[in-house]
Write a structure and sequence with these properties.
Distance between the termini: 33 Å
Helix content: 55-70%
Number of strands: 0
Number of helices: 10
Order of helices and strands: HHHHHHHHHH
Length: 185
């Protein structure tokens, strides 16, 4: 006996909407996608490198903008949509991507699980899970890398520093955006 699949209106409505759209609208959407494609192909590692340089720049705002958007990049994107770039730079303004619904405590638990750390006995797991709590005086490291901090990104960076290679990723802005979109589903 054949099993009947449940009816999902999305299966019919999306192709129907695409078929009934004006050809001019379809052409504009295609043009917009091709303009976005160039920015999506930029390397995420390059963006991270520029952002790191900007954080160390104490000078004028104009200089920080020159570091973040150098002339060759602006020339390469001329006539193209910088939407994929700005979507990653300004996530709080992006209304098309839903909220991840995860906070630092949830992220800490995920990292402990992903890294395969023992939540009870691993010092790194305890640092992640209790990043807001100061270290007790008896637990002084022989070579402290940083002073005691309650900043989640610094704690995470400290723990990942020995586990992550220094080789730059070949991931593009488009690939990173795709992964972030999948996290919201």
């Amino acid at each position: 006996m054949k099993q009947v699949k449940d009816f999902d209106p999305k299966d019919v409505s999306e192709p129907l909407v695409k078929a009934t759209r004006n050809p001019v609208e379809q052409e504009e959407e295609l043009r917009f996608q091709t303009k976005e494609r160039k920015a999506s192909q930029l390397l995420f590692a390059d963006l991270c490198h520029r952002l790191e340089r900007v954080t160390h720049e104490v000078g004028k705002r104009h200089r920080r903008l020159e570091i973040l958007f150098p002339r060759p990049l602006v020339q390469a994107l001329k006539g193209c949509s910088p939407y994929p770039l700005f979507r990653l730079l300004l996530p709080h303004i992006d209304t098309t991507r839903k909220n991840y619904s995860i906070k630092h405590a949830g992220l800490a638990k995920l990292y402990v699980e992903i890294l395969g750390l023992d939540p009870r006995h691993s010092r790194d797991a305890q640092k992640l899970l209790r990043y807001r709590q100061p270290r007790p005086p008896r637990e002084l490291d022989s070579t402290p890398k940083r002073p005691c901090t309650f900043d989640w990104p610094e704690v995470l960076e400290d723990i990942l520093a020995t586990r992550v290679t220094q080789q730059a990723s070949r991931a593009t802005l488009g690939e990173i955006s795709e992964v972030l979109d999948q996290l919201t589903r």
